[in-house]
Fold this sequence. Notes:
This protein has 19 helices and 15 strands.
Amino acid sequence: MGRPGLNRRQLLAGASGLAVAGSLGFAALGTGADALASGADTRVRYWNLFSGGDGYNMIAMLDAFRKANPGIDVKDSTLQWGNPFYTKLAMAAAGNRAPDLGVMHMGRVTGFSPGRLLDPWDVDLLAEYGVRQADFNPALWNRGVIDGKLYALPLDVHVQLCFYRKDVLKKADLLGDDGRIVPVMSTDEWFDVLKKAKKATKTGLQTIGLWTNDQNFQWWFFVAFYTQLGGEWFDDARTEVLFDVDKATQVLEFLRQHVTDGYVIPGAPTGEQFINGAPFTWEGNWSVPVFSGAELDYGATPLPPVFGKQATHAESHTFVLPHQAGRGGATDKGAHRLAAYVVRHALQWAAGGHIPAYTPTLSTDAYKKLTPQNEYVSAMDHQANEPKVWFAGSTGVLAQDLGPIVVSSTMGSAQPAAAARRMKNDLTELLASKNPMDGRTAAQGGAVA
């Protein structure tokens, strides 16, 4: 599958992207990858995968860093999102041609052979530049720790959200006194909300956009609701599959019901329908600039806790140190300084919808004024993550294998119970398979369990 939401992000490539980049006091757009600091005595080569609105925000942050640190020349390169990026990064690290600093999704770090293809962070040096473990959500920080060493420095948490049109929900009497969607705590309550919203929806529009035929989104939604049910994946030793078929079936039936009850138009463009008046869409938080740019009267919450427990799918962009045989010296310090600077100045990044990982940012007046970011910031504390195994992570093997199964159930080509059993069988095969990065299974440490 292509990059989820890429077209929507590209909508920011015009004036709206520039407005976001300049709204919080940063330079709008600098010279980017071709910028060479005059008189700089240290060069830091930095690879990332940010395009569209994310790319504009990152460039603005890099330009601000350059201005504050004229002695460090940042040579940044943006590569193709997804597996092409990870393949190139792995080959560069294995061939000792790696950049000084890189970006990875947190879920992919475990499978990237930490210690061989990634170097650990010097936490004392990070602390010298103002970044300390105490400034992060403990669960998020610990996801980047492998064998007692920090391999992934979190930049953000990006989550799946329930976007809603306030103008439509007001007509359906589904807004509380605070102007936000009424609380939903069960599947019955959720479908009652959809039933009421549908009556207030313009003809020709779906009630909710669910990306029903997209393996990535469907997998992310499954992870969220399976976590709400308390579902487990594997035992601690990574030798036994604990996947609960009954709980998985419940989730698959829930997702399928949106289609069978007529709340979804399969294949309909979700973001466009929402902009045109559909009351709901489930999207990643990266859609915030698009919907805000369209000047919609809308809100966004974490996915509804329909199974009684707060949990919404979450991933994290992180900074990593691709392996270099001779890592150290001024360049390595420059990489640490750059990563720490971006993490600490993430208000610009928050404008793109992401929740900053550096928690002091969340308590600032400027962040509290960001809407709808201030409505879903609580998602930081109830993240639904994929299991910490080598085959997990954004666009990883786990999503590629199980995502299509979820789609088949949601779209009706497979029965939920049968799909759940197939998911467990696939998990059993994956647990026994070897990580191509180091030739070990998860139980053997397969780039660490």
